[in-house]
TrEMBL record:
Cofactor(s) annotated in UniProt: Mg(2+)
Full protein name: 3'(2'),5-bisphosphonucleoside 3'(2')-phosphohydrolase
GO molecular function, one term: metal ion binding
Domain of life: Bacteria
Annotated organism of origin: Klenkia marina
Catalytic activity: adenosine 3',5'-bisphosphate + H2O = AMP + phosphate
Length: 259
């Protein structure tokens, strides 16, 4: 398998075990914990079999920092949106599998776009409840903007002020959705036109969805317009913007710190 085929196979393997567990007797926190662990095992087994020399950064595994000197690092979230997954009747959760590769002479954490840095090169995002895996190659095609107001994806539990600011700048509406990965894929799939996040997340929460969004031609950045950096020593990423490219200037003007 090439890298994108492996990413897709890993996402599907995780999806299979997650869906199987969801039909069993476990519920609530027990179901979420079982799903996290089983999806991690499924992905780790495939990566160990097919790319044993690559490093892995996963939400569900200890970070030994070997990735900081590695040329190839898989960034994985075996179950993004545990709360939605264990609800049983929601589809807005995901599986993330991305590959970061170092440019010649690069250092871990160098900014994307720096000639000596690294970047996300391959990704697959599984949407198990929908029976879909979206990959970077072939790149997804973003549907045209439908009639009606523009839509900004936002957390179901809280709407950060930057999301409201983006919606106001676009004369749009907020669309509550589940996991971070699903909200990013909602823009790719045409369910939303922008996703703006503040308050922090980790690299595994966005790496695969951002890679897919980039492949689809969408804008991705920090709130201040700077690049999203992956495989940095600190896994924390404070904020995120994903939107249709023609909306980027308006969104960034509204959400840029100090705006």
């Amino acid at each position: 398998m090439n890298d994108v085929e492996l990413a897709a196979a890993a996402a599907r393997a995780a999806a299979d075990v997650l869906l199987s567990l969801r039909t069993g007797t476990a519920t609530g926190t027990a179901l979420g914990d079982a799903g996290d662990a089983a999806a991690q095992r499924a992905i780790a087994a495939l990566l160990a079999e097919h790319r044993p020399d690559d490093a892995v950064l996963s939400e569900e595994a200890a970070d030994d920092h070997a990735r900081l000197t590695a040329d190839r690092v898989w960034i994985v979230d075996p179950l993004d949106g545990t709360k939605e997954y264990r609800a049983g009747d929601r589809h807005d959760w995901a599986v993330h599998v991305a590959l970061w590769e170092r440019r010649s002479g690069g250092r871990a954490g160098d900014a994307v776009g720096d000639a000596t840095g690294g970047d996300l090169t391959v990704a697959a995002v599984g949407l198990p409840a929908l029976g879909e895996v979206v990959v970077t190659d072939p790149a997804p095609v973003v549907p045209p903007v439908p009639d009606g107001p523009l839509r900004v994806a936002v957390s179901r539990s809280r709407a950060p002020e930057v999301s409201r600011a983006a919606a106001a700048a676009l004369d749009g509406v907020l669309v509550p959705l589940g996991s971070a990965g699903y909200k990013t894929l909602a823009v790719v799939r045409g369910e939303a036109d922008a996703y703006v996040h503040a308050g922090g997340m980790h690299q595994w929460d966005s790496a695969a969805p951002v890679a897919v969004a980039r492949a689809a031609g969408l804008h991705t950045s920090r709130l201040d317009g700077s690049p999203l950096v992956y495989n940095a020593a600190d896994t924390w990423l404070p904020d995120l913007v994903v939107c249709r490219p023609e909306l980027a200037a308006r969104v960034l003007a509204a959400v840029r710190p100090g705006a």
